Each structure stands twice: as structure tokens, then as C-alpha cells.
Amino acid sequence: MNTLDWKNLSFGYLPTKGNIRCYCRSGKWGKPEITTSEEVTLHMASTCLHYGQDVFEGLKAYRGADGHIRLFRVRENAKRMIQSGLYLQMDAPSEELFTDMVKQVVKLNEEFVPPHDSGATLYIRPLLIGASPQVGVKRADDYLFLIFVTPVGPYFKEGFKPVSVIIDRDHDRAAPLGTGHTKCGGNYAASLVSLNICHNLGYSTMLYLDAAEKKYIDECGPANFFAIRGNSYITPESHSILPSITNMSLIELAKDMGMTIERRKVEVGELATFDEAGECGTAAVITPIGKIFDPVTSQTFEYCKDGQAGKVSTALYNRLRAIQYGDETDKFGWVDII
Ligand code: PLP
Ligand code: COI
After folding, report:
1. Whose CA is nearest to atom 5 of ligand 2?
2. How confident is the model at residue 304 (pLDDT cuts 50, 70, 90)?
3. CA distance 71 to 285
4. Which atom belonging to ligand 2 lies closest to the Cα atom of 60?
5. Which of 60, 107, 161, 183 is catalytic?
6. Domains of the chain, with CATH numbers?
7. pLDDT digits (tens, 9 = 90+) for 9-59
8. Mutate to test the pocket of ligand 2, among 282, 286, 287 (most ligand atoms within 8 A of CB)
9. How far is the CA of 26 from the centre of ligand 1 (A)?
10. Distance of CA 134 from the midpoint of ligand 1 (Å)
11. In whole numbers, what is the pLDDT of the chain averaged over residues?
């Protein structure tokens, strides 16, 4: 086992033993190769550099109390990369190649999977890029798929503590019929200006509204938004929202807990009616939202008046974590033990 300061890791990059790569040349995938190099050599006219042929994924490996390393719903990440790739006209690895390479790179870096009780995990970052030159706006002929891993602590320094969010009506991360449903790098580049403003104002994330009407709730920073009202789990439906695997899992867990699911357009006006609000994603896990500030109306919506996450968010968080870490039987078949 490595001797990192596991309990104080941030959500950042630390070098590990190696990463894994595979090239697809003119539609034909080669053999995956492990390397210790942290660099990528690319032609200067590669499409990822000029035309944004760049999609990625994010998932985690968890060390259980039994010492086993578990992956959470890795095939869903593979499927989403295939969907993102299709939209950006890229050759994507098959579900099988994706899953095999994830397993290989985690196994290689076993010593970097943090201890069970550290609160840290091994973050897995698969990346697919157009890796051959074009000067006209065209898809690349060749693609590089690589996966690196890095041990991480919580994405929000607060951990499972309420954060403050600000509504951003001045920027959109994605267009209504654009790339929001894909995990392409461009969506994140488009969010940087908004993120910068939001951090400068002392908020941890921005809540985007639908780009066309500014009437409905969209993404919440790098995560999906959800709310609890009575016995309902409510989450926005929109083409510009990334289909979150965490959200998909919370929906199953909420159903299992006897809750009603409302997956639909959610009006901003409903913010005042929710009992709890939160953001969810691989990096964010469940991050409870304590306050949402609307700079246009100067209204603040408060959810965790006692400074603690709400009852339902806490129950969902505990169940999700218990399955990810192997503390609860995986009756949904979500986990792969490496
Ligand atoms: N929305 C955005 C914009 C994200 O970057 C992420 C992170 O992957 C999510 C939602 C959550 O998705 P997932 O739960 O699959 O990690
Ligand atoms: C994730 O939750 O895995 C993400 O990709 C979010 C962010 C770090 C981009």
C-alpha cells in the first residue's frame, strides 16, 4: 500500500504507476498498451486540438472493508462514451474494450486505491481524442483512447456538507440542441467563465437554466440537480443535461425506498417548494445544497437551515456509498469486483 496522506487528498492529479492507451487507426482498434509516460505526442493539426474532438468519462474505484476493489457501473460509462463519440463523429471503444482497459489500469495501480475508511477513492479518467490531422473541418481518421487514474479526496471541500449555489442566467454551458448530453471537453470549456464568476462571488457551483427560455432548471455545475418534495424525487429532464449515472442510480434507490420519481421539466419557480435540494455525480457524489441565490430577483432559497443535509438526501447518500463500498448487498448488479 502506498503511504500517501489519504485523509487529506484534494480532487487533483497525483502520478501513479502508469496509464493505458489504445489507438484506433482508420476504424480498426489496436492492442491496449500500458505506459509510464504522462505525456501524449500529437500531430499539431490533430482534430482534438482544433475542432474539439474530445470526449471523456469519470468513474471511481472503491476499496471495501473486505479489502476488495469495486468499480461502480463501469459499463454505463462505456455506453455513454460511445454515445458522446457518436455525436462528435468519433470512433469509440466497444463496451468490452473500455471495461477491460479500466480493469487493467486499476489493477496496475492497486496500491493507489485509497484505504476503506479514508474518504478518498481512485478516480478513473477515460479520454478519447481525435488524434490525426485535418485542416478542413472534418472528423479525424485516427483516435486515441487512454485511461489514467489518480487518488482523490472530495470534489467540494465541504464533503457531505451543504454548499451554496448561484443561478447563472448570463451564460449557457450548452445549446438546447447542442452537445450538453455528451461528455465533451467543449462543454467544460464553456463553463469556465461562469465558474470563475461564481467562485469570485463565494459560491461553490452555478445552477444553469435552460438556454432558450431561462425558465427551467438545467445542469448544476459538473453535476445533475435533484430535489426532494414530500415523497417525490424530482430531477430535470433536458437534452442539454448529461445523463448522470449517479442520478440514474439514485432514481433506482429512491424507487426502492418507495418514493415517487418525477423526471420532467422543473421550473425555477419551484425552487421555493422543495424540502431538499442537491447535486449528484461521480465527483460530487451527493452534495447537499444549502442555499440557492437568484441574483436577478435577489431571492435566496434555503434548504438545510440546521447546517445538515436533509433526511432523504442523507439516506440516499448512505445507500449509494454502502453499495459502492460493498457494505450493502449489490442487489442491482452495479458493482464489479476487480
Ligand atoms: N453533469 C455533468 C456536467 C458532469 O460533468 C457530470 C460528471 O460526470 C455529471 C453530470 C454526473 O454524471 P455521473 O453521475 O455519471 O458522474
Ligand atoms: C465526474 O463527476 O466524474 C466529472 O467528470 C465531473 C468533473 C470532475 C468534470
Report:
1. 58
2. confident
3. 14
4. 3
5. 183
6. 6-152 (3.30.470.10), 163-325 (3.20.10.10)
7. 999 999 999 999 999 999 999 999 999 999 999 999 999 999 999 999 999
8. 282
9. 30
10. 30
11. 96
What is the tens place of the pLDDT at every residue in 51-108? Answer: 999 999 999 999 999 999 999 999 999 999 999 999 999 999 999 999 999 999 999 9
Q: Is residue 138 annotated as a catalytic residue, yes or no? A: no
Reply yes or no on whether the pLDDT at 336 is more than 70. yes
Q: Residue 302 corresponds to which cell in the numbers above?
A: 434555503
Amino acid at site 18? G
pLDDT tens by residue, 198-218: 999 999 999 999 999 999 999
In angstroms, the Cα distances linking 169 to 147, 174, 207, 213 are: 35, 13, 9, 10
Per-residue H/E/C for 180-214 = CCCCEHHHHHCCHHHHHHHHHCCCCEEEEECCCCC
Mutate to test the pocket of ligand 1, among 282, 321, 324 (most ligand atoms within 8 A of CB): 282
